[in-house]
What we know:
The complex is a heterodimer. By secondary structure, chain A is mainly α. Helices cover about 70% and strands about 0% of the residues of chain A.
Amino acid sequence: xxxxxxxxxxxxxxxxxxxxxxxxxxxxxxxxxxxxxxxxxxxxxxxxxxxxxxxxxxxxxxxxxxxxxxxxxxxxxxxxxxxxxxxxxxxxxxxxxxxxxxxxxxxxxxxxxxxxxxxxxxxxxxxxxxxxxxxxxxxxxxxxxxxxxxxxxxxxxxxxxxxxxxxxxxxxxxxxxxxxxxxxxxxxxxxxxxxxxxxxxxxxxxxxxxxxxxxxxxxxxxxxxxxxxxxxxxxxxxxxxxxxxxxxxxxxxxxxxxxxxxxxxxxxxxxxxxxxxxxxxxxxxxxx
Amino acid sequence: xxxxxxxxxxxxxxxxxxxxxxxxxxxxxxxxxxxxxxxxxxxxxxxxxxxxxxxxxxxxxxxxxxxxxxxxxxxxxxxxxxxxxxxxxxxxxxxxxxxxxxxxxxxxxxxxxxxxxxxxxxxxxxxxxxxxxxxxxxxxxxxxxxxxxxxxxxxxxxxxxxxxxxxxxxxxxxxxxxxxxxxxxxxxxxxxxxxxxxxxxxxxxxxxxxxxxxxxxxxxxxxxxxxxxxxxxxxxxxxxxxxxxxxxxxxxxxxxxxxxxxxxxxxxxxxxxxxxxxxxxxxxxxxxxxxxxxxxxxxxxxxxxxxxxxxxxx
Lengths: 288, 314
Ligand SMILES: Nc1ncnc2c1ncn2[C@@H]1O[C@H](COP(=O)(O)OP(=O)(O)O)[C@@H](O)[C@H]1O
Ligand SMILES: [Mg+2]
């Protein structure tokens, strides 16, 4: 079957179409605008289905109650000071860590149900799904941190080195969350089934928090576990924000403990440098 | 000169798993109207549509959609098309209205235009009452309609539909058909895949029959029917004893002996001008004093064409 290969330019005259917004004309302007629309979408999910975020809240609050009150009374903080003051920064970090599950299941749901096919067949920026999710995760993280700060103040936790350092600590938490967003997106696209991906992600997140300095000093662990725990990115952020909040720490003099602030920036940046390109690559190769 | 909305030449697509889904797929779908891709399960229809919609890379060949090259100008293609896939591609958490506004915004409508267009489409697809409910609570038919509405937000120049009515009740199916016809009246070309011959026959101006990754026949439904045989005239005479006389009369008219039925009362013969032959033959038989008890022109159905082309033993 052969025929003349002249092809219709555009069957619908431009005037007959609903006009596109003139505000978004440049490529980059489009990418930003599309990303923001996508952020709005994920935030609407939170409003329409608040169960999910409530589940994500209940976990850290339970940790505060169980560890802070049930076990906490019998625990000694090596560096001195109250256990709840010691615990709260760790709970902040853990909440950021477990957010990876929300990211992964959210992206897996999109990819698995075919809505990503619609996005990919539309003239929207290809980055929008990922940048939109990352930004929505940041908004969620701010909400989570706010709630946890209030809870913390209620159980006797406080910051002691001024609001500037406290805000810096929050910045480190958000940076960690940003890195974990990209990790979660990669997992979500690799396993486009929300049930499967949560079965994979939570068992991965749990050892990261257990093998850290959130609950227990690495010095109390067997030597090799202690080393993992010292170098764990989760420990870096925890130590750094304990310092910034002026909460009791572990008083360790190991290199990672002394340079916790540096590591709390370097680790997330490294994770983003690895996982953001992986996520983009994965998104592209959905079409193979 | 004909203009084409979709052109494919020698498309080849082999999945990683090893299946060759497109194996020299050629297509020239003219602009305007509804074009049907008809084929059995596994023929490669979905693969072809996903290639045209820039969702899937292909290994060889060339594809052009709405004047843009699929491989080198995918953004241009995406700007001119819409796709409603085999499975509803909507956000299940959001309401129907929020879905349409979202997709409108992502196609760069201003917020106010996106909301207005959403309301129009909800009305058109009888979803206004359910506009505020989560898509997850929609029935299959409602979700399909929402999905279709999402594809019509910017009145694409080519709309791809992958089995748009599979699993729909007759009422929803009619709504979908109606919406397609009105879209076509506005100038959109629709390329739809279907396993239902009836759908292709009812809707499509032209049909390509797809089997094992290639187009095995192409034409209007009427042309396709003609490929497996002309119309047949069937005559039943009242008195079986006069069948031989009747056959002689018919042979005298057409110059060839008709098939006669073993049950003794029926004759069949191929004809080109169905109705004209019917009238002429019946008159000749009456003139010969033979009473005709039943007469009819039998047209092959698209079913028969389809089975013939794709192998009846499947
Ligand atoms: N993602 C995939 N991976 C591997 N093989 C596939 C994939 N999708 C489809 N196929 C195979 O490609 C062939 C064509 O499939 P498809 O295009 O879905 O046909 P249709 O839509 O006509 O039913 C089938 O043999 C099918 O098994
Ligand atoms: Mg299919």
